[in-house]
Fold this sequence. Notes:
By secondary structure, this protein is α+β, with helices and mostly antiparallel strands. It has four helices and six strands; from the N terminus they run ββααβαβαββ. This is GNAT family N-acetyltransferase.
Amino acid sequence: MRNHATYPHFQCYFAELRDSSPDLAAPEPRIVGFAYGFRGAPGQWWHDVVVRGLADRIGQEAAHAWMGHAFELAEIHVHPDYQSKGIGRQMIRTLCAGRRERTAILSTHDQPTAARHLYAGMGFMDLLTRFVFPGGHEEYAIAGRRLPLT
């Protein structure tokens, strides 16, 4: 995250819950999730790898249409005890609100996970599946959608 925070138009949000116990004078916030993203650009490792992967599978023009002016959702995490409560959805909406990029792009494990279900429910479509990043072995899906979110 330290490196990503130097990227253009970086944004980060934390999801906090406050303990509402009447015994507490000043409830302490509890961080239950965080998400961040930035504008992707040539020279960034993930961006360059995904552009090449897209160009190989769907062509250079389509790859540029998706990645040429994209908001890259780099990390979206919600503590397991707080998943399926709308927190991830709200963090994505907050991150994408008012963005000037044409698209939002992310990668996720290429398995039927709760995260994949969330992204599909928000209109993200698979651009690449069974994608393996250089040096890795796990399969990922690269998903994208046009902005703004509706």
